[in-house]
Amino acid sequence: PLPVRPPSGCPAGPPPHANLLDRGDPHTAFGALRATEPISKVSLADGSWAWLATRYADIRAILGDTRFSSDPTVPGYPLSGMTGGGNTDNRGFIRRDPPEHTRLRRMVTREFMVKRVEALRPRIQRLTDDLCDAMERTRERTDGPVDLVEALALPVPSLVISLLLGVPYDDHETFQRLTGTLLARAVPDAERAAARDELRDYLDRLVTAKEAAPGDDILGRLITEQQRTGEITHDDVTAFAALLLIAGHETTANMIGLSALTLMRDPEAADRLRRDPALIRGAVEELLRFHSIIRNGPRRAATADIEIDGHLIRAGEGVVVAVASANRDDRVFADADRFDPGRPNAQHHVAFGYGIHQCLGQALARVELQVVIGTLLRRFPAMRPAVPVEEIPFRTDMSIYGCHALPVTW
Ligand code: HEM
């Protein structure tokens, strides 16, 4: 049952739902809210509250309306429990509004365009094959289970984004550890702040080195084309690096883990995809819809009084836009709680957000998922979890859902 005591500072109105956003499986509660109270109030970890939107139509209305700000310094922005906590200094364009958002995003859009990303497919395939070879060798050597997260799900997107940005992959233990701390919700603020400073210092040194010798990569091009012409500063380049590095590996890594698990547990679907690989594209959209790994956001602050579905959201109030709930809305997706790799409209999901902040890296995420899933189905038809599902450590403690580890055997 949802607790009914409103947190301090909560105005009169329906009681907020405490801890809803801290659950591993929020779908039952989201479903109940969609049916009875689609715009409700939710309490956040620090005792503050925000509006919680759960229906698809309302969520598109909010994300499509730039009067809802992405800027965490705007009054009412619900920061509590967010990635990176209350960090607002030198933030990337994901947390900025137009015109700054437009100006900065435009500097990197072409890097992530479908055509550009499609050209990377053979390279992503080779890299995936190499990691699968290594998995086979590990299995032969140890005869024990292999952790699919460590062996494949994390390295593929990490290697790809390091390569694109021009960040040495040899440093992956550093940036993966720091990103992990930044994304953990249970970590004390001091520890998270220390991780943020360490990542900033690391990227600061990296950008300084690249200023002396910019390579043929995204950070190199930002330096030669934008920084040297005075469009952006050293700190802006560092902010680009932090945003793209964090957004570019944790998200896809978690989708790979959950997708592999889903297909291992649904052999019929896996067989269908193996027999007809042309279906993998659609299946990836369904996996994105079904899992919607961003479970407690995105978030916005209203900069005007705006009516959504009969509720007045006032200027200065925060909104949690539950894309994970929108993707389970039966008004749009028939029998939405069912995983159906052949679902005809799966691609209408909002797992990548909607509106001007819609995921910049979505074409890249799609190619990575298509390649990795296709390869796993082909090369490891007998792969299965090495432990009962209850023993898989799911990321209920993180702001991006997934598995911390996924022991598999075959
Ligand atoms: C934005 C999800 C992979 C880079 C977003 C947003 C979502 C999202 C929901 C919107 C945030 C908002 O509206 O406030 C995902 C998921 C991924 C994924 C589910 C993987 C399955 C990637 C990758 C990159 C990336 C691989 C690579 C660079 C970004 C950036 C933004 C963004 C830069 C900010 C866009 C803006 O504010 O204009 N992502 N993402 N993402 N994502 Fe992704």
Automatic annotation (TrEMBL):
Region named Disordered: 1-25, 74-97
Keyword hit for tRNA processing: no
Keyword Translocase set for record: no
Bias (Pro residues) ranges: 3-17
Record keywords: Heme, Iron, Metal-binding, Monooxygenase, Oxidoreductase
Membrane-crossing residue ranges in chain numbering: none
InterPro entries named among the record's database cross-references: Cyt_P450 (IPR001128), Cyt_P450_B (IPR002397), Cyt_P450_CS (IPR017972), Cyt_P450_sf (IPR036396)
Stored SUPFAM superfamilies: Cytochrome P450
Assigned EC number: 1.14.-.-
Domain of life: Bacteria
Molecular-function GO term, any one: oxidoreductase activity
Family affiliation: Belongs to the cytochrome P450 family.
PANTHER family: CYTOCHROME P450 YJIB-RELATED, P450, PUTATIVE (EUROFUNG)-RELATED
Name of the protein this chain belongs to: Cytochrome P450
